[in-house]
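Request: Not sure, any thoughts?
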Amino acid sequence: MPSFQDIIADPDPLDWWSAHRGASPVVGTAVHNGHHLRSDLEGLITLDSDERLREEDPFTEFFIRDLPNRIIFHRSRFEVDINRDRNDAIYFKPEQAWGLTVWKERLPDEAIASALRLHEAYYDMLETHLRGLERQYGAFVLLDVHSYNHRRDGADAPEMAIEVAPQINLGTFSMDRRRWAPVVEAFTEQLRAFQFRGLHMDVRENIAFHGRGEQTRFVHERFPRSGCAIAVEFKKVFMDEWTGEPDIEALEAMRKMVRLSLPVLEETLRALP
């Protein structure tokens, strides 16, 4: 069993992202895993570290650590949200940020411009990375890994109703669903076959979320015939969303489940016409 330190990514505070390239047409991303803020923003934000962490996606980097291709974003989504388009990538209003007032005052123009340059740089990098996979394999799958809260009314409040909160939600809104049906369905069945603590995983499509994020939209716009991007939302059953305390056994299981899906995705991709 790994220790807490084994599961925590500890990037340099100046790093934007980490990208790993390996021999596979499958790439995993964790764009909300990051927690760092630029130093010039620390005196301007209203939220403390714990409040930010509650809306970030900690440990999602750990889930994809066994994939040969993976991209992990190290900046907090409160600095710039990579999974939103430029107009919404900075949380200026509470309605953009779960009702939270994020900034004490209007951000300086240069702070805004700096965040948007980072947003642009990320997508330049992502397109280059994916073009390489396309050239080598003809087609690729991107697993856009996130997590979501299910006790929003408080630490002791009941969980969200199971009808609207699967353990794993697959978002497929922006894809050509008919073209990529063999990939999505094989992936779904592989995840459902995985057992954790004696139960099969509850995996459903477009229930809690629909996969309307910017990254999946970008992939399907730029790579309409070669790129299958699936938004994979894990309910935060692997941690306490209010304290940040991880369930290490659950984290290890989620990582194993993603690892076991890799040959299934590769085989399904090879079989596509």
